[in-house]
Design goal:
Distance between the termini: 53 Å
Mean pLDDT: 85
Number of helices: 19
Helix content: 55-70%
Largest sheet: none
Number of strands: 0
Structural class: mainly alpha
Oligomer: single chain
Radius of gyration: 23 Å
Low-confidence stretches: 442-457
Length: 457
């Protein structure tokens, strides 16, 4: 069965890669759908083949207990992957056939918006700084927050912070740096852009360090690297290869950082990857074996907007699907009986928990439609270099990672700063132009009082 699983996994990877290549070549550019399918092929295909091989050949009680008893069900996961792939594509196509007036109106068509984008970048950075300052007050200030973060890692103590709801706003500095970096890629080399990027880049690293996310560091750097390739209009096949290598860089970087910090260390990178990538499959088979949570009726999708609110307002009446999955797999939810971590829910397991195999198709359809909606919004951004940076971020953060960390609570909370940043950018760019002097009668529409033309978003 192991040999068959490895072969099926590799076949699944080839199908996904072929789909992404052919679809991007047909359109002449790489879309969010292509990045998502490429990620599915990497994890659900190649990753599954690696896990099946390592699980069978290495003596590991965790894998033996969680995966080997379900060898006869291994092909079912690959079948679910193809169901997910087909439903995502159908959602993508159907959403593409719809026309939304609000999106059509979201057209940054003024002659000059570089100045507005610079202003938006500084607004995001200043708001992020102020929000982080107030959030960190309970920990003794900005430097005290770093010491507190280190103490959390050591399990020394915790501090109750009444301003904890301000924490996500610190992530707005990422999008400030993306704006400045995009303007720089587009040839805007003004000193105010350079200084803004240096400050936003430095503050982004401070935020990432205080959040203690291993993957976050590499996702941030990978976004900047991938955006350079997108901004240079690299052809689809080289771009997909570069994107695949970028995702591999994130995984290898996480392994090296884990070794350096002595966190979840494995004997080698193969064992590390097999262990870190195994949670979608462990969760999938555990849910099938239990059969207890396979008819949640898309409730987890319906309540997703409440996760925009502070957690204190919803934790008592909304059940996080990740906690349900963690309790089933480990025996207790996070924070109970010594359980310190939660097991994420990937897109296939999320769909399975909603309505079995039909739920996988339904969740895939919703995800595909959401990707197309994001693509439509990206296509309204007229400043190509700025669009390249945000497209690279969405490709990594949502098109790929949201497949494997799909619980709505995490997807919504992780992208809260993105949503707020987009609202602020739109507000700043669309502000009406203020004239300090009234134009004298008799002058043409282009004269010494007219603002100089600039590019738009």
């Amino acid at each position: 069965m192991t040999e068959l699983t490895v072969a099926i996994g590799l076949l699944c990877m080839l199908v996904c890669v072929a789909f992404a290549v052919l679809h991007s070549l047909r359109l002449g550019h790489v879309t969010l759908l292509d990045w998502s399918v490429l990620g599915m092929g990497g994890i659900y295909g190649g990753g599954w083949a690696l896990i099946a091989f390592v699980t069978k050949t290495e003596e590991n009680p965790v894998w033996e207990r969680s995966l080997l008893p379900f060898e006869h069900l291994y092909p079912l996961h690959t079948l679910s992957t193809f169901i997910l792939l087909g439903s995502i594509y159908i959602g993508w196509l159907l959403m593409g056939s719809l026309r939304f007036r609000p999106i059509k109106k979201l057209n940054f068509a003024s002659e000059n918006s570089d100045g507005r984008l610079i202003l938006a970048g500084w607004v995001l950075l200043i708001i992020a700084l102020f929000m982080q300052f107030f959030y960190s007050h309970a920990y003794g200030g900005l430097m005290g927050l770093l010491e507190y973060s280190a103490s959390i890692r050591s399990g020394i103590f915790t501090v109750e912070n009444p301003m904890s709801f301000l924490k996500p706003f610190g992530g707005m500095t990422f999008f400030s740096s993306f704006l400045f970096f995009g303007l720089w890629l587009g040839g805007c080399r003004r000193w105010i852009v350079k200084i803004g990027f240096i400050l936003a880049f430095s503050f982004s690293f401070y935020i990432l360090f205080s959040w203690l996310g291993r993957i976050g560091f590499f996702v941030y750097i990978a976004t900047l690297v991938l955006s350079i390739m997108v901004a240079r209009r690299v052809r689809p096949i080289p771009l997909l290869v570069g994107g695949g290598l970028t995702m591999l860089f994130i995984l290898i970087g996480a392994y090296q950082l884990s070794v350096w910090l002595n966190i979840k260390v494995a004997d080698d990178i193969t064992s590390f990857l097999a262990r870190e990538l195994s949670f979608p499959f462990v969760s999938f088979f555990a849910q099938i074996d239990s059969g207890e949570h396979l008819l949640r009726g898309f409730w987890d999708i319906l309540v997703a907007p409440v996760y925009l609110l502070p957690s204190s307002l919803w934790t008592k009446w909304v059940e996080n699907v990740s906690q349900v999955n963690t309790e089933l797999v480990i025996g207790a939810p996070k924070g109970v009986a010594g359980v310190t971590g939660a097991i994420p829910v990937d897109l296939i397991t999320l769909g399975l928990m909603q309505a079995a195999l039909a739920g996988i198709a339904g969740v895939g359809f919703i995800f595909g439609a959401g990707l197309r909606l994001l693509q439509k919004l990206l296509d309204r951004v007229r400043n190509f270099s700025v669009r390249a940076v945000f497209e690279a971020h969405l490709a990594i953060k949502i098109a790929v990672l949201a497949i494997f960390y799909a619980q709505p609570a995490l997807v919504v909370s992780d992208n809260f700063a993105l949503l707020v940043s987009i609202i602020i950018i739109v507000f700043v760019v669309k502000l009406p132009r203020i004239r300090l002097f009234k134009k004298p009668k008799g002058l043409n529409s282009v004269d010494q009082y007219s603002p100089s033309p600039v590019k738009t978003l």
